[in-house]
Task: inverse folding
């Protein structure tokens, strides 16, 4: 596909023209054609973190595309052995002293090809009505493609951005972003900027543009009981030897109660301030018609749904096994195993999560439960005050574009490597998601919604326009 060079870009126009040009990309086939090509590259970092598809996405797909927009592109090996490459792209304007850093990830989770609905494939873009199916549409190829196309629309109308732009594209976010922090440490001076602006995650509701300034942290760990070698006849030994499945179930019940409320004091955050409660007061979560319904009696009592997911910690059991569920026998198993997770907000010390749990289990009478060290490093929690000047700047831009205010969150409920940008690089971070909670992210039938694609293109074109407008005062 041909992309205009900077010399071919037209003369300066208006903000309205740039937004209209961006919106048109959702309907003239251009955006879907571009996204189709990117979805077809099987960049599953869970299956092949350093495979040829990773390099091809960065070198053959994104580099020529970004070079046509005036970027200088460099492909870098990952500082961590066995992890995928990174692309660093820079676009500079000699008369600009304001710089934005952006980000995206080229990798996706495994395709799960055999679990998609008949007629759909994870590696073939397919539109059905308002839905656009394909692995990576929502996470994250579709989202960073929206941003770059909005940027291209601004360049086509104004002929310049009015600011400098730096971009990191990584290939390992779905496996915990290995090497990203080290890469940013190595290139700290080169990555210096005034603002971080990127897109990932879901909106609060499909019809509400959302801004958030950070993300909950996450740590995954295993609980295990090894009571004895082998299984023993439940008739001969029932009532005489402990059942690891029962023991582990009660150990989990010591961590949280029957409605999922966390019992460990160390895991109960102290960061739900009046300011955060006020910011979340009007937030109503809705995943759309296909999403699950919120259960009012699940989670921490006394909190609103928004407070539970954006301002509190949640403990989850992701997998639990004892014996052989596929072929049970009349025997007391010797082992039980659970894979668990804690999503946490600012105010929780992620370095103490495992040690606090070990102490709690011993004190609760479960010294036989092992808490294994996490296999992959945790992601830290970050947060930006909804009243931060940069957040207010973005809110005003969105409101000017759409005629309505966006929803604003201090942080996303999910987890992202935002600490790299907020803590290591010291930047205010603004995220503008272009997906929604029922997008089947990380599952079969992943998709984007056409109305969100169009609105995302418009919103980002407006934001990029305002960032480069000298008449707009910047924080």
Result:
């Amino acid at each position: 596909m041909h992309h205009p060079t900077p010399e071919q870009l037209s003369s300066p126009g208006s903000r309205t023209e740039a937004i209209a040009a961006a919106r048109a990309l959702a309907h003239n086939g251009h955006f879907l054609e571009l996204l189709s090509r990117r979805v077809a590259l099987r960049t599953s970092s869970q299956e092949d973190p350093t495979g040829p598809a990773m390099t091809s996405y960065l070198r053959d797909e994104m580099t020529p595309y970004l070079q046509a927009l005036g970027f200088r592109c460099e492909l870098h090996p990952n500082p961590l052995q066995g992890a995928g490459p990174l692309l660093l792209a820079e676009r500079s304007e000699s008369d600009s002293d304001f710089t934005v850093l952006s980000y995206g990830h080229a990798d996706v989770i495994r395709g799960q090809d055999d679990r998609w609905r008949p007629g759909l494939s994870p590696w073939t873009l397919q539109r059905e009505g308002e839905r656009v199916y394909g692995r990576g549409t929502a996470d994250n190829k579709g989202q960073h493609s929206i941003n770059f196309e909005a940027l291209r629309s601004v360049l086509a109308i104004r002929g310049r951005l009015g600011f400098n732009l730096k971009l990191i594209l990584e290939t390992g976010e779905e496996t915990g972003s290995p090497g990203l922090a080290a890469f940013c440490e190595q290139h700290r001076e080169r990555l210096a900027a005034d603002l971080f602006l990127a897109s990932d995650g879901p909106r609060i509701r499909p019809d509400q543009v959302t801004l958030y300034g950070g993300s909950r942290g996450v740590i995954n760990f295993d609980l295990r009981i090894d009571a004895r070698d082998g299984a023993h006849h439940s008739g001969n030994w029932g009532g005489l030897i402990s059942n690891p499945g029962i023991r582990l179930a009660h150990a989990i019940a010591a961590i949280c109660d029957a409605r999922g409320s966390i019992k460990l004091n160390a895991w109960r955050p102290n960061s739900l301030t009046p300011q955060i409660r006020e910011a979340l007061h009007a937030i109503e979560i809705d995943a759309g018609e296909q999403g699950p319904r919120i259960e009012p009696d699940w989670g921490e009592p006394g909190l609103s749904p928004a407070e539970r997911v954006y301002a509190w910690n949640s403990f989850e059991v992701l997998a639990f096994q004892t014996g052989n569920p596929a072929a049970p026998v009349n025997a007391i198993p010797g082992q039980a195993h659970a894979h668990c997770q804690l999503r946490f907000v600012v105010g929780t010390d992620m370095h103490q999560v495992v040690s606090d749990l070990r102490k709690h289990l011993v004190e609760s009478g479960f010294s036989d439960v092992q808490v294994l060290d996490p296999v992959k490093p945790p992601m830290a929690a970050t947060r930006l005050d909804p009243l931060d000047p940069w957040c207010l700047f973005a809110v005003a831009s969105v409101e000017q574009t759409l005629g309505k205010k966006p929803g604003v969150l201090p942080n996303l409920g999910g987890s992202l490597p935002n600490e790299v940008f907020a803590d290591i690089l010291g930047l205010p971070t603004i995220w503008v998601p272009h997906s929604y909670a029922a997008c089947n992210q990380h599952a079969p039938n992943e998709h984007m919604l056409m109305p969100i694609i169009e609105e995302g293109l418009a919103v980002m074109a407006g934001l990029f326009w305002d960032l480069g407008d000298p008449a707009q005062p910047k924080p």
Q: What stands out?
A: The chain has 13 helices and 17 strands. The CA atoms of residues 1 and 34 lie 8 Å apart. The longest strand covers residues 217-226.
